[in-house]
Amino acid sequence: MRWWQWLPFGRVPEIAPEELARRIREGRAPVILDVRTAGEVAEGTVPGARHVPVQELAARFDALNLPAGSEVVAVCKTAHRSIPAVRFLNERGMRAVQLAGGMDAWRRAGLPVERPRAA
Length: 119
Prior knowledge:
Layout: E1 14-15, H1 17-25, E2 31-34, H2 38-41, E3 50-51, H3 57-60, E4 71-75, H4 82-91, E5 95-99, H5 102-108, E6 117-118
Parallel strand pairs: 1-5, 2-3, 2-4, 3-6, 4-5
């Protein structure tokens, strides 16, 4: 990743927790990448999320096997670390957004959490 991509400032496209939950329930879930640390993810993540720490995203991107144009939602704790992830993914042809408010907003909305799958 380039240095400017790491800046957790600025705006990137978002999806509201309730909208993502609705899409999951309807079977229309995008790829969900939880970019938090392993310790944070161990406490639970969005159902169906794959764990790839933001620091490892560039190195592990090819192994994700995401077709160009894939819809991807990046998730972090408060929607700061997901900003560089969204920038990185969009530069590689994904249609990436971040979870608005991150896992904190997901939990405040009372939405379900599960243990993550390895990416």
